[in-house]
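Chain particulars:
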Amino acid sequence: MTAALDHLSPIDLGELTERASLQTRFDRKYVIPEAALDALLRGMESGARVLQIGDERDFAYESVYFDTEDLASYLGAARRRRRRFKVRTRTYVDSDLCWVEVKTRGPRGCTVKTRLPYDPSDRSILTDEGLRFADEVLDGSPDGLTPALTSTYRRTTLYLPTTGSRTTIDTGLVWTSARSGLSRAVEGVVVVETKTGSTPSSTDRLLWRHGHRPVRISKYGTGMAALDPDLPSTPWRRVLDRHVTR
């Protein structure tokens, strides 16, 4: 993937955050074959830029998702409940930065992400500070939030100036259950996400022209379902059957 990015100018993290923080946004997700990625990158809009820190243009991520014993967060998503939520820590492994994040649903189905700086050494637990934060954002968080799933992957982030939006490309996705210890790697495909305002980005239109359509995939929900086939998984069944458990 590095060679296909060589023609893109860099953008640093500070400028990317200033121009396209998009904490409230519409997310569209695509699962595409690895073999299709090079053509996608070469077809990006003129002026697209790639996040670069030092000499690096793709970065290791780790997310730890927290849920109740009865999986209130997971089942809220699996059953498409209106007031669903996610609580996780997100660690940027290469820079040793960490956040605790709460994701909720906003008006018209947009995603609202609220986050707080967090000690990387605490990323596998919710400290008292993390619990208070979740409680404040959710106006009363469920009791008994404990680690449920860890996802690891590498991410490349692109800035699209026409819509002031971002496109992320995730490779090497691995899920590990915090409860059973089982792991599953997702091979042969990459996950592309467009993070925009209400207007689709040029990446969306590029993907549509190549025959790719948005799919329902959640790194938490799909990962949990992949590792435990007894869980309800209707929203992610198509992705599971086509790309994960095939």
Remarks:
- Helices lie at 2-5, 13-20, 37-42, 72-78, 128-138, 202-209, 221-227, 237-244.
- The CA atoms of residues 35 and 56 lie 22 Å apart.
